[in-house]
Specification:
Shape: globular
Number of domains: 1
Number of helices: 11
CATH superfamily: Tetracycline Repressor, domain 2
Number of strands: 0
Helix content: 55-70%
CATH topology: Tetracycline Repressor, domain 2
Largest sheet: none
Strand content: under 5%
Length: about 220
């Protein structure tokens, strides 16, 4: 995958100016990922970001109207990247069970950096997804933003994996509930393993999260 040139397309309603179109925009994305991962979303501000990138705060507002819009952009970028990897890694698999198992592996594995995107640190972005992504849609404006398609990429990932489930068992009643539960649950378990270990059985190097969710989904669907 490192040799493949890939372009991640993001909903144009999420930005005032496409950050991928300029060096400054790419710097805004790159440094914001570092800072949100380090500081947390609440303590992150455009003023602090401007200091770090050596630019006026006003220049950041030319790309994003608020830090909430930036967070939703980052969430969209992550799920678009996951969608690309999901399609790429399952396209050559013929059996629905193999597709589903590969999808669960992808959705629960520890993220590694993808050299196809030089200004995005996928490892730190994944940490933002684990710790901060719920703040993108647990808002009063979620219905308006959903109507604008702001969460479409996440929903597409769930839809792809749900189709794998239905290819195995067309009569299964709850594919979307099952897939979204696995995605959110895996993120919770990774968070618990670092901060609230009594709430999880995850152990480094033992793939416990993958084995747990593979067992869950295969027993439930079959």
């Amino acid at each position: 995958m490192d040799d493949i040139q890939v372009h991640i397309k993001i909903n144009e309603g999420l930005y005032a100016k496409n950050p991928d179109s300029s060096k400054l925009g790419q710097k805004i994305i790159s440094k914001s990922i570092e800072m949100i991962d380090e500081l947390g979303f609440e303590c992150f501000t455009f003023r602090k970001l401007g200091v770090e990138i050596g630019s006026n705060e006003s220049s950041i507002y030319r790309y994003f109207e608020s830090k909430h819009a930036l967070l939703v952009y980052l969430v969209n970028w992550y799920w678009s990247w996951i969608e690309y990897r999901l399609v790429y890694k399952t396209s050559d698999l013929k059996k629905p069970h193999d597709k589903l198992n590969k999808a669960v592996e992808l959705l629960t594995e520890t993220v590694t950096e993808d050299n196809s995107f030089l200004y995005i640190n996928e490892i730190k972005l994944h940490q933002i997804i684990i710790k901060e992504s719920s703040k993108a849609y647990y808002t009063k404006d979620v219905d308006k933003e959903n109507a604008k398609g702001f969460y479409k990429t996440y929903k597409r990932v769930v839809e792809i994996v749900s189709d794998f489930v239905l290819a195995i068992n067309p009569d299964f009643e709850f594919p979307h509930m099952l897939v979204s539960t696995i995605i959110e649950g895996a993120q919770h378990q990774l968070y618990f393993s670092k901060h609230l270990p009594a709430l999880t059985d995850h152990q480094e190097g033992k793939n416990n999260i993958l084995r747990f969710y593979l067992g869950m989904i295969n027993k439930t669907v079959n």
